[in-house]
Write a structure and sequence with these properties.
The chain is mainly beta. It contains one helix and 14 strands, in the order ββββββββββββββα. It has a domain of 59 residues: E3 ubiquitin-protein ligase SopA (Pectate Lyase C-like).
Length: 193
């Protein structure tokens, strides 16, 4: 991979970008087979962005909009993704490892082969999500919202789901621990004494 000093105008292929601050407007950007490390995305607007087969690590992408595009075979590692917006996007084979995704927005996304490992997902929105092979491992989903999103066969046993917002009809088939099951009885109107 070739090391570069700044984000290119339209294609980043087989390149490494390290310790940079990315700002401004980008009409369209395609990132393939690349690595972004220790970068800060600040006041950035992407009219279009597609990322494939890449690693983004130790970077700050907080509050940026990544809506209505596709992201394939990506690993986000140790990244600040607070408030990132993935609305209307397609994510396939994406790993979020030790990332802060508090207040992130995944509304109306298609998620396929996605893993959240040791992530902070507090108050994150997963409304109208279609998913296949979605994993949450040792993650904090406190106060997150899953509205009109099926949770059938989704395993939350290693996660914090305190005050999670779920519609009653989406509880069917959810996998939880005994303590979590007791907490979720409130959705059924059951009072335990």
């Amino acid at each position: 991979m070739k090391k570069i000093d700044n984000l290119p105008n339209n294609i980043m292929n087989n390149e490494i970008l390290e310790s940079s601050t990315i700002t401004g407007y980008h009409d369209y950007l395609e990132i393939k087979n690349s690595k972004i490390s220790s970068c800060t995305f600040q006041n950035v607007t992407f009219q279009g962005i597609d990322i494939e087969n890449s690693l983004i690590e130790e970077s700050n992408l907080s509050n940026i909009s990544l809506t209505d595009h596709s992201y394939t075979k990506i690993t986000f590692k140790n990244c600040n993704l607070v408030g990132v917006n993935f609305t209307d996007s397609y994510l396939d084979d994406v790993i979020f490892d030790n990332c802060n995704l508090m207040y992130a927005n995944f509304n109306n996304t298609n998620l396929k082969n996605i893993k959240f490992n040791n992530c902070i997902l507090k108050a994150t929105s997963f409304n109208l999500v279609k998913w296949k092979k979605l994993e949450f491992i040792d993650s904090n989903l406190e106060e997150s919202e899953f509205s009109r999103t099926s949770l059938k066969d989704l395993d939350f046993t290693s996660c914090n789901i305190k005050n999670i917002k779920i519609q009653l009809e989406n509880l069917k088939g959810i996998i939880v621990s005994l303590d979590q099951a007791i907490m979720l009885t409130a959705f059924l109107g059951i009072k335990i004494k």
